[in-house]
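so the lab meeting is tmrw and i was supposed to have these ready like two days ago... anyway. pasting both below. for each one the top line is the aa sequence and the line under it is the structure tokens. i havent really looked at them closely yet so no promises
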Amino acid sequence: MLLPAPMPDTAAKLIDYHCHLDLYPDFEAQFRRVAAQQIATLAVTTTPQAWRKNLELASNAPTVRVALGLHPQLAGQYPTDLALFERYLSEARYVGEVGLDAGPQYYRSYTQQKIVFESVLRLCAEAGGKILSVHSVRSHRDVLDLVERYLADTSNRVVLHWFSGSAADARRAVELGCYFSINRMMLVKRDSTLVRLLPRHRILTETDGPFTHIESRVMVPADVGHTVSLLSECLGLDLTSTVGLLKRNLITLEGEHDLLALSSPA
């Protein structure tokens, strides 16, 4: 049986930087729960149609950041989504989930995905100051090419979600200033080798719930404590040092706009 991971001394130090809160069956309760547990959560969306509802729920959940999304797996399915994305972008500091997916199930839409993703990046470049959570399944080079083309020398920041590219891809992403959100699955499979190659000051944690599982149940934001423990082992750090590292990384990424009243870094 999987034992509970040791939790940091205050829940406010937990960070789930990629979670689909609105896709849980009890999604309204999830927003309340995250707020009560003081977990810094990036609530990504898959379509701009979900923006308003997520924003409404987050208004009573001060630790939740809502990201305006247009998921690559849905690219082209909803013709009005890109226009809606552009309409709402001025209201959003966070953008996600966006990106490319060249997996077998979605490769047919890849050309359309690139059109949509390029449009998203162009709009973000024009707006400036966005933090993007980016999907890059089997498309790491194309994603990085487009990030370099549109976001280099802008005030935008990119966080690569569940990154599984090569070591060369990772080095290039680092050179482009990207961060990486690490989930439990990346630490229990071969990807842990890649995680050890990443600069520690560019790492955050995520669950990608409800699309990940721990034993036989769906992961929720509080389960990111397990990820923190696994990351500690991967990096050869104690838990307190890992928590402090993640908190500093979040503050560096978000600057003075951090929504949590976090204490000084451990």
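ok protien two:
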Amino acid sequence: MFVDNLNITSFRNFDSCQLQFGDDINVLYGKNGSGKTNILEAVFVLLLGRSPRGAADQVMLKNSADFYRVQGDINIEDKSHEFAIAYQKGGRKKITIDKVTSRTSDLFEKCGAVSAAPEDVELLAGPPARRRDFINIYLSQASGRYIADMSDYQKVLAQKNAFLKQGNNHSETPYDDLLIKYGSIIMLARNHFLKTISATATDYYKKIAGGQTFSINYKPSVSFDLNQDKSEIIENAFREKLDRYKEKEKILQTALVGPHRDDIEFCIGDLPARTHGSQGELRTAAISLKLAVFDYLKKIRKETPILLLDEIFAELDDNRKEILVELFGQFGQLFLTTASQIPEKLLQTSRAFKIENAAVFPQ
């Protein structure tokens, strides 16, 4: 698949903008603050209906604007489709595919996209919520079942929390059976996903960093044998922990057990990345992680996702930059931004766009 063109209105710092992309490497370059990252964000919104940065629709509105609109033609299995995402201030987002009203889940079913950016170091060194969001956004692209199970789990979790906040200290929560049902399926899917991408991420890290090791370890809220891919094992462990935390949940009036409390541990060498990784190591690890996700989605979806790389060369030495450029040829359509000089090898194989003061100048 590839994005043929993009038209944006009142999005971030752009009044309006039209771009015609190449189906290989597209380089957006210019000074910091010119709008390069915002174009990548618009492409991601077009494909999946949400910001890769987790920004709310209200935040993506241009100052004083009442709406934004992102529209473009996307080629999927040699057929062109018109996608459009529009948001009205104070209202709801409208999604259309070929002018037919659609849902966010329809975008996830049709499109695959992976975004890497400097703030991805927060995946390794930031709070657990960032790591859970990472799992959710990319696993949802691989499995419609995961989207449905997450939706059901979130509804049950909200109902349980509301029940606990009502101060029902002498009543048994009626929601634990459903919480266990959906939560166990989610944790099973997360375990499989992280085990699958771990080896690939390690290989990418070794290539880019020159031999150093990188590992990914799933830390589920419910302890179970990660080598056992059986939902009943997780269900039993889930129920057992819920029983132990029953009184504590009543006192704190919130659910303390389940995938909404999951985490991931990343290690560089034998040490936790969040406490011992340098900026260069964290950036390399984050990039390796996203490239592993790209390979995973490509295999699962049987179609090449779109890869968006924001300031990919920041914090990397020249050797690591050169290795990355060598890898770019295997990734299908790729978008990247840079405020620094574009490597000569990259210029020979890419379509370049200069971004200056929210204006685009194809080169």
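from a quick look at the 2nd one: The mean pLDDT is 92. The chain is about 45% helix and 25% strand. will dig more after coffe
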